[in-house]
Amino acid sequence: MKFQEVVSRRRAYRALEPVQITEDMVRQLAETAAMAPSCFNNQPWRYVFVYGSQELQEVKKALARGNAWAQNASMIIGVYSKKELDCRIKGRDYYLFDTGMATAFLQLQATTMDLVAHPIAGFNEERAREAMGIDPDMRLITLVIVGRQASRPEDYLEGQDLEGELNRPPRKPWSEFAFIDRAGD
Question: What structural domains and CATH numbers belong to the chain?
Answer without folding.
Answer: 3-11+21-150 (3.40.109.10)
